[in-house]
Structures are given as structure tokens and as C-alpha cells.
TrEMBL record:
It comes from the Eukaryota. GO terms for biological process: 'de novo' IMP biosynthetic process; purine nucleobase biosynthetic process; purine nucleotide biosynthetic process. This is Amidophosphoribosyltransferase. The keyword Glycosyltransferase applies. Residues 58-277 form the Glutamine amidotransferase type-2 domain. [4Fe-4S] cluster binds at C293, C439, C490, C493. Keywords: Glutamine amidotransferase, Glycosyltransferase, Iron, Iron-sulfur, Magnesium, Metal-binding, Purine biosynthesis, Transferase. The active site is at C58 (nucleophile). InterPro entries: GATase_2_dom (IPR017932), Ntn_hydrolases_N (IPR029055), PRTase-like (IPR029057), PRTase_dom (IPR000836), PurF (IPR005854), PurF_N (IPR035584).
Length: 546
């Protein structure tokens, strides 16, 4: 049955009602907030809209066979900037020497003409990352470069290893010394201790020991290697430029910018090696049924990308059409929460025969810090980024489409913002099923206890956010849309059923050392998610049958 809640009795929305979360304590924020509470008794951090979204960790690029490899890598990272804004790096290979430049900030902040001039060569890999913003963050910015007895290797990684803690403990017992808290460093140690030859087999041997999500690109003195985990959690595509240069990237939008033609995905469990002999592909890892991350189509990827063989734009438009069909409501206008809700809102409006308009304008110029006024402004963080258009909203019955609800803190601010701008009714439509479980595969989500859909049914969420009705995308309808491909996607965040069951604690996406913390990892609070306890199916059923 459809996840739909509708307000039946008019009553004033009590904005002083609180929901206990640790949103204000989450270190993964885009801005620096004041510690002073706002008029609702909450810190400004909990009101910032990006604080209530899942976060992708990073994007990767690899290029072989172009004399301007580092410059093309720089442009491709620009196209992947949405996947990570906290740090960027490029490693190039010239005369069998690996040269690395990494930095904190956006790609355009890290690289200049003079820095790119320092990165000659026809082989390069690059990385953009999202993680915490602390004093020691630079050491965790990828790509990482290491030297060992067989030469040097650079690596850029998108994903998260669920057995990182176990592997790191075993390596440290045998004398390995770690310089970062990134799980990517484990991969380098495993390659270094491997006795397999050639290099390709050392990668395969390392990948046989790691578990979880990984799409990686490696650079050696003469090779570019791309590898994807057996489940294919995170995307990785391959393309080719007109001069024959081979390109790997997290999304096809990066290929488009540097005029590379999309050829295919790197298959789950595949290792692709590019060198002067050409392109070689081997699949030595086991082949379970693929479990690609459905949130790439819901939120992470750009609409102009093709991910897992499907157009992201067409997927999101179809999500909106399903909501209009299965959760219709009398309305005058359809608006989106920009930017990720726009395409689904277009689909909803077209199917419902209702005009789509820009009822919320997003500011793209909010910096990393802001000066707090002495007179507190309610919902200050959201108002910095989202401005309502009164001419669109006043006196109207409004459907507002968003991609997801995580903690629910931002949705309540948006509803209040729209009503203060004169909206007569506000009907929330969410272009994903309810999120009830944490992700362990490269997406930063809160613990299950912080997820509002894990603790409230749809009617309770509707009451909390103050909307006149609320509906989620039914997971059954999502499966019907995907058809035969539906079994190839991971829905763990919607069901609590994990393709790779974590054991023990799993490291969050953020790296502890980014906050200047060093010591026994178990003693670092907030750095770990508890091991998955199977989320009872009754929770899912309760959410769907409200």
C-alpha cells in the first residue's frame, strides 16, 4: 500500500516540537556554525539543508594515453565536483615517476595553471572527496601514493570497506604503520605485502581480502588500472577520446566534458589494465548478483549522467510520474526542493497536468562560513540557501517534491518557509522510499536511531514536518519501474537487508584524523556505526501501510 499520510483535522503547527537527533553534532557540514541556539532552542547546524541529506564520499578519474592527462583529469574532476567538495588531488606519471598534488577545497581552489604545469605526463588519476573539515584533513586527501619494493603506486577510491577495522588490526599486528584513518590505505598495505607477480595479481589478491564497496583507479610507472567490487555498489565507467586515450570516471558527465565517448561500465568484479600493450580485462573475483546503489539515481549522480546503464534524468522523471499517479492531490502548482528534486517535480507536474514553477530559489553562493546576526533568525541555515517566491506560492495549494527525507529537520523548515510565504496548503512528495537503515557502502548516512523513518510512521513524520499531506515513492513501484534490473540494485537503506553483512563496527565515511584526533580508534567517539542488526520487517510494513 502507498506510503501516504494526509492531515485530516486542521491544527496549528507547533514549531517548538523537537526531534532528538545529533544533526547539530554532525561534523560533516558545509559551513561553520555558531554554537549558540536559535529561537527554537537548536543550533544553526541542525537547520542547514545539506545537513539532512545522505552524502556521497567521492569521485574518481583515470586517464591514459594523452599528453595533457593532468589537465583533462582536472576538467573531469570539475564535472564530478558534486560528489565531493572538501578536497581534490591529481597524481600524474612522467618518466616513470609519480608526482602528486592534493589540497583542501574545490577543484578550482586546489589547482592553478602553474600547478598543472607541474604535472606532465600521459597518465593521471584524480579524486574529489567529501569528508570532515578539520585541521589535519590534508593527509586524508586522495589520491594516495606509496612506494614499496616493486615500485610506486597511486590509488583513488570511491566506496567504503566494511571489514576495514579487522584488516587494519591484522596489518598493525604484523608491523604496518598507518598514516591516515582512510580505509583506502589498507588497500595499499595489502598490495605492498603481497608476494604475487605481476602488479595486476597483487591488486586481485588485495581485493580478495577486502569486503564492501570500492571503485578504484590505480596508477603505476607504466599502467592505469581500474577495479570495481564484485557487487558493483559504486559506479565506474570507461570511455575513449578521439586520439585513443582511455578514460575511467565515476560518471559519464565527466566523459562528456573532456569529449570522451562512453564505451561501457567497468563490470562488477572486473579488473581493467591499460598500458602500452592496450586494454586488458580480467574477472578473477567471484560474481554474486550485482547490487548497485539505487541512491545514485535518486540523489547523487547528475541528471545528465548515465549510471548503471540507465539515464539518471529519465529515472528521476519516472519517480515523479509514479508519485503523481499513486499519490495524487488537488493542487495549483508543483515546485521542487532544488536542485535534486527538480527532475522528479517535472515528472510529477507533467503527469498531474499541473504547472511546474520555481517556488524555491537556491543560492549557489553560500560560502563555508557566515556571520551570525546578533538578533537570531529562525531557520537561518535553510534561509541562506533557499528563498521562497511569494508570487508563486501565495494563496496556492502547493505540491513540493524532494528526493528524500533523512532526519526530517530540513523538511520541517521548508514547510514552514513555504507557509510563511503564503502557501495555502503544502503537500510533500518524496521521490524515494523511506530510509530506515544506515548505509555501509560509501554513503554517509546517520545511524539508524537518527533516521526519522526508522522511528516514526508516515503520519507521525507528516505531523512533525507540518505538511498537509506526505507520500513516499513505494518500493514496489520502484521495483516495477526497474523491471528485470530491480534485483541488481541495493535497497539496504530502505529494508535493512545488507548484501555484504558488516561484522563489528564499521567506520563512518569521515576520517577521524581530519579533526586532529589520534589514538586508539575505539576511543574516538562518533567515528563508528554499530554493526548491522537486522531491521525488523514489521518496521518497513508499518511505514508502508500508514
Amino acid at each position: 500500500m502507498l506510503s501516504l499520510a494526509t492531515k485530516t483535522l486542521p491544527k496549528p503547527y507547533n514549531h517548538h516540537r523537537t526531534l532528538t537527533t545529533c544533526a547539530s553534532k554532525n561534523p560533516l557540514t558545509d559551513v561553520v556554525y555558531s554554537d549558540q541556539p536559535d529561537p527554537d532552542g537548536r543550533s544553526f547546524g541542525s537547520y542547514f539543508d545539506d545537513d539532512d541529506k545522505p552524502r556521497e564520499e567521492c569521485g574518481v578519474v583515470g586517464i591514459y594515453g594523452d599528453s595533457e592527462a593532468s589537465r583533462l583529469c582536472y576538467l573531469a574532476l570539475h564535472a564530478l565536483q558534486h560528489r565531493g567538495q572538501e578536497g581534490a588531488g591529481i597524481v600524474c606519471v612522467n618518466d616513470n615517476v609519480l608526482k602528486s598534488i592534493t589540497g583542501v577545497g574545490l577543484v578550482s581552489d586546489v589547482f592553478s595553471e602553474s600547478k598543472l604545469d607541474q604535472l606532465p605526463g600521459d597518465l593521471a588519476i584524480g579524486h574529489v572527496r567529501y569528508s570532515t573539515a578539520g585541521a589535519s584533513m590534508l593527509k586524508n586527501v586522495q589520491p594516495f601514493v606509496a612506494s614499496y619494493r616493486f615500485g610506486s603506486v597511486g590509488v583513488a577510491h570511491n566506496g567504503n570497506l566494511v571489514n576495514y577495522k579487522q584488516l587494519r588490526g591484522e596489518l598493525e599486528e604484523n608491523g604496518s604503520i598507518f598514516n591516515t584513518s582512510s580505509d583506502t590505505e589498507v588497500v595499499l598495505h595489502l598490495i605492498a605485502i603481497s608476494k604475487a607477480r605481476p602488479f595486476l595479481l597483487r591488486i586481485v589478491e588485495a581485493c580478495e581480502k577486502i569486503e564492501g564497496a570500492y571503485s578504484m583507479v590505480f596508477a603505476t610507472e607504466d599502467k592505469l588500472v581500474a577495479v570495481r567490487d564484485p557487487y558493483g555498489f559504486r559506479p565506474l565507467v570507461m570511455g575513449r577520446r578521439s586520439n585513443g586515450a582511455v578514460v575511467f570516471a565515476s560518471e559519464t558527465c565527466a566523459l562528456d566534458l573532456i569529449e570522451a565517448t562512453y564505451e561501457r561500465e567497468v563490470l562488477p568484479g572486473e579488473v581493467v589494465v591499460v598500458d602500452k600493450e592496450g586494454v586488458q580485462s580480467i574477472c578473477l573475483m567471484p560474481h554474486p548478483e550485482p547490487k548497485s546503489c539505487i541512491f545514485e539515481h535518486i540523489y547523487f549522480a547528475l541528471p545528465n549522467s548515465v549510471v548503471f546503464g540507465r539515464s539518471v534524468y529519465e529515472s528521476r522523471r519516472a519517480f515523479g510520474e509514479i508519485l503523481a499517479t499513486e499519490a495524487p492531490v488537488e493542487c495549483d502548482v508543483v515546485i521542487a526542493v532544488p536542485d535534486s528534486g527538480v527532475v522528479a517535480a517535472l515528472g510529477y507536474a507533467a503527469k498531474a497536468g499541473v504547472p511546474f514553477q520555481q517556488g524555491l530559489i537556491r543560492s549557489h553562493y553560500v560560502g563555508r562560513t557566515f556571520i551570525e546576526p546578533s538578533q537570531k533568525i529562525r531557520d537561518f541555515g535553510v534561509k541562506l540557501k533557499l528563498s521562497p517566491v511569494r508570487a508563486v506560492l501565495e494563496g496556492k495549494r502547493v505540491v513540493v517534491v524532494d528526493d528524500s527525507i533523512v532526519r526530517g529537520t530540513t523538511s520541517s523548515k521548508i514547510v514552514r518557509l513555504l507557509k510563511e510565504a503564503g502557501a495555502k496548503e503544502v503537500h510533500m512528495r518524496i521521490a524515494s522510499p523511506p530510509i530506515i537503515a544506515s548505509c555501509y557502502y560509501g554513503v554517509d548516512t546517520p545511524s539508524s536511531d537518527e533516521l526519522i523513518s526508522n522511528r516514526m510512521n508516515v503520519e507521525e513524520i507528516r505531523e512533525y514536518i507540518g505538511s498537509d499531506s506526505l507520500a513516499f515513492l513505494p518500493i514496489e513501484s520502484l521495483n516495477r519501474l526497474l523491471g528485470e534490473d530491480s534485483k541488481s540494485f541495493c535497497y539496504a537503506c530502505f529494508s535493512g537487508d545488507y548484501p555484504v553483512e558488516p561484522t563489528g563496527k564499521v567506520k563512518r565515511i569521515g576520517d577521524f584524523m581530519d579533526d586532529g584526533l589520534s589514538g586508539d580508534m575505539d576511543s574516538i567517539d562518533g567515528g563508528w556505526l554499530p554493526a548491522s542488526s537486522r531491521v525488523r520487517k514489521t518496521i518497513v510494513n508499518e511505514v508502508r501501510t500508514i
